[in-house]
Every structure is written in C-alpha cells, then in structure tokens.
C-alpha cells in the first residue's frame, strides 16, 4: 500500500473547485464543490465510467439527450463516452468515482 497523498484544490470554473480524494490506477475518487447557484460543470465526455453521488446541494445534469434534477443522497452512473455536464441549482458537493483513474486530474 502506498502512502496517503494530499491533493490540492483546483479551480475548474467560476464557483467550482475539484479535489482528488483518493487514486489508484483502476479507480479515482474526486470531490467537486459548487459555491453558488448557476455554477457549471461544462459539457464534456471521457472514456472513463463515472459514478456521481450528490453529497449536498441540488443540480440539473445533462446526460446525452436527457436532463435530470438531482439532490442530496442521489447517485447515478455515467457510461464511457456519454457527453454530460451540470448546472448548480443550490450550492453543494458532488463526489465522483472514475474507472480507470483520470490521469489528467493528477
């Protein structure tokens, strides 16, 4: 087992930060904090399978052609390659897991 790493908080957009919480080549856990309503997670896609847990707040997610409102306690999986993003409706925190690890976040 390797030593625990402490990862920096990175600004990813207006009112949005990201912090890697744990990583392994096969899995990564990342927290995204949204400080205000209207903050956005830009539309994007990646080859990683992603699960998202809404720790707090409320968000509108765009998942391909689908829109979904989620709030604290909700979770869902985003398949590899699906274009997705979100808009914060109430400030909060998302905890995402990626497999394999998002090396671009390191």
Features:
0% helix, Jelly Rolls, Cupin domain-containing protein, mainly beta
Written account of the structure:
Strands 1, 2, 3, 4, 5, 6, 7 and 8 form an eight-stranded antiparallel β-sheet that branches. A hairpin with a 2-residue loop joins β5 and β6. The radius of gyration is 13 Å and the shape is globular. The model has no long low-confidence stretch (mean pLDDT 95). It is built from no helices and eight strands. The protein starts with 8 loop residues before the first strand and ends in a 7-residue tail after the last strand. 0% of the residues lie in helices and 64% in strands. The chain has one domain (9-105): Jelly Rolls (Sandwich). With 106 residues, the protein is mainly beta.
The CATH architecture would be Sandwich
CATH class: Mainly Beta
Please summarize the sheet with the most strands.
8 strands, antiparallel
Number of helices: 0
Average pLDDT figure = 95
Structural class: mainly beta
CATH superfamily: Jelly Rolls
Shape, principal axes of CA atoms? globular
Number of domains: 1
Sequence of secondary-structure elements: EEEEEEEE
Cα-atom radius of gyration: 13 Å
Helical content stands at under 10%
**Count of individual beta strands:** 8
CATH structural fold name:
Jelly Rolls
Q: Between the first and last Cα atoms, what is the distance in angstroms?
A: 19 Å
Detail the poorly predicted runs.
Answer: none
Q: β content, as a range?
A: over 45%
Domain Cupin type-2: 37-95
Organism: Roseibium sediminicola
Protein name: Cupin domain-containing protein
InterPro entries: Bacilysin_H2HPP_isomerase, Cupin_2, KdgF, RmlC-like_jellyroll, RmlC_Cupin_sf
